[in-house]
Amino acid sequence: MQRLKQYWRFWFVIVLGTIALWLQFVQHQGRIAQWIVTGVGILLAILMFIEMVQTLRSGKFGVDLLAITAVVATLAVGEYWAALIVLLMLTGGDALEDFAASKANSELQELLNNSPQTAHRLVDDQVTDVPVAAVSVGDQLMVRPGEVMPVDGTLMTGPTTVNESSLTGEARPIDKAAGQTVMSGSVNGEASVVLRADQTADNSQYQNIVRLVKQAEAQPANFVRMADRYAVPFTLLAYVIAGLAWFFSGDPVRLAEVLVVASPCPLILAAPIALISGMSRASRNGIIVKTGTTLEKLAQVKTFAFDKTGTITQGQLLVDQVVPVTAITADKLLQLAASTEQHSGHVLAQSMVAANEQPLLTATDVQETTARGVQATIDGQLVKAGKADFVAETSIERPDQTAVFVSIAGIYQGYVSFSDRVRPEAATTMRALHELGVSNLLMISGDRLAIAQAIAKEVGIDQVHADRLPAEKIDVLTELPKEQRPVAMVGDGINDAPSLAMADVGIAMGAHGATAASESADAVVLKDDLTRVSVARKIAQDTMRVAKQAVLIGIFICTGLMIIASFGVIPAIIGAVFQEVVDTVTILYALRARSER
Predict the structure, then answer these.
(1) Backbone torsion region of residue 326, taken as left when φ is above 0, otherwise alpha when ψ lies between -120 and 50, otherwise beta
(2) Distance in angstroms (rounded) separating the CA atoms of residues 400 and 464
């Protein structure tokens, strides 16, 4: 609606201005042309005045006051063609600025579409499908393999394996036994389970994420645009020069002549065009920046916060070590484990099969025990692969990492450990951000503290916050001290969506990330490359430097023209034309933000 309003004004001035020109110079109806231009000027001045009052009430100061004064002054002294030029510049600049601030998508449609819609309610051994909103606390629900847990609840049967990546961002499967709690939005594994509802759907974790994003987006950013920062001193300077010119000359026309060349064209045009150019440059580098204001804020960010899984790391659990504890070789141990689990759909089984470079052995009498492991007969021997207490009765020393333990004929042989690999470009990205003036780098993860700290040390991150759910990630951001703000959050999953929306700048790794994260972010990295984050920071800084230079160049030229016009040597309409020359210089300089440096 805002965009339509700005475009309507621009085309309104274009159409009626063209009609006025035709009446003046073709039909020689100068009086009617003057009435049309005056009417347009008065109408838009009133609309801008109302908006200016609303802006002032919100505690901000825009550039409209000087423009309104210029329009009114030129109309009052009969310089209506100069007024038309000012109106054309003003409405065109507003439309251009609105175009630069392209509409951010905050509907989170993908998140809403993926939320549980139906639950299988279990009453007297009869299963009935009901809307998830109809589930009450205490209801028993059947959750089949591969289905999403509809509400937060406690498992009445088990064990099973659940995937909580949509909530915590962690790809590691979680084993759950009867009596343990599960969160809505987590995906059930390969066994049907009965769940007792502990919360209604509206109060469950998945809907909390939706609610958190909406609440975060509803909070306005505490940010002042560059154009508004320059508006106050420039407006005061223009009024002082115009007032002095009128006072010493005694001619009100002199006031209009000064204000025409003082119209804030550089403030209205330079920043939006530089921002459009910067956004275009970002797009060429695989980064979609949704609004021009995002670039302004990104250039000032002091803290970058990163999700771990899928952002700092690759988001895939891969074989890290094969550790035999007997005379068996590591290659043979991995071959036996992969052969035993070759038909399993478990993510760890798939990783072992992918890492094994030996031919898979024939496995017979395969039996998979949900959430515990797989056993099979290979070469006449019973091989077990899975949890420690599944493969052997003796006590086994367990590593800190996720691991699959292997035994042959009841004798423990060793384990295969897994880790989420750090992105090869992560350390380079952190160094680049420090060099670009970012004083603080954070990692906020749902993973365990020891794992998060090891990864942070490897890539060069300053602070670690581990074991955090989505709401707790927001707490980390909101509790940052003032000297560490503004803050940018980088993430890739649905669980990151609230944090991306809450941060001053949200950056989504969108190549493989959740659509909901991309929709709630201010910028989206389309390439699966973390260095694009530091590139975005550099583009933002370059863009704002060019924008600032363009604004200052325009202000200096305008100030010189105001001083000259105060002596009465520049008629109002000539001053308006000079102002367009200033616009051209400003635009050409602002377009430098498109180029790579």
Answers:
(1) beta
(2) 18
- Taking CA atoms, 132 is separated from 6, 117, 197, in Å, by 43, 5, 11
Contact 142, 130 (CB under 8 A): no
Write out the chain's pLDDT in tens, 597 residues.
Answer: 444 455 778 888 889 889 988 988 888 888 898 899 888 888 888 887 787 777 666 655 555 677 778 788 888 888 778 778 778 777 776 666 555 443 333 334 444 555 677 899 998 888 899 998 899 999 999 999 888 888 889 999 988 888 876 665 556 678 888 889 888 878 888 788 999 999 888 877 667 666 655 554 454 444 445 666 777 788 888 889 999 999 999 888 888 888 888 866 666 667 777 888 888 788 778 787 877 788 889 999 999 999 887 789 887 788 989 999 999 999 999 999 999 999 887 778 989 999 999 999 999 999 988 778 999 999 999 999 999 989 988 888 888 778 999 999 999 999 999 888 889 999 999 999 999 999 899 998 877 788 888 889 999 999 999 888 777 888 899 889 988 989 999 987 666 778 888 899 999 886 554 455 566 788 888 777 899 999 999 999 999 899 888 888 888 888 898 999 999 888 877 887 787 777 777 777 878 887 765
| Token representation of residue 480 | 């940052």
Q: Which two tokens stand for residue 234?
A: 């420039």
To the query of whether residue 307 is one of the catalytic residues in this protein, the response is yes
**Looking at 307, 504, 542, 583, which residue is catalytic?**
307
Residues 36, 30: contact at Cβ < 8 Å? no
159: preceding bond cis by omega (within 30 degrees)? yes
pTM, entire model: 0.65
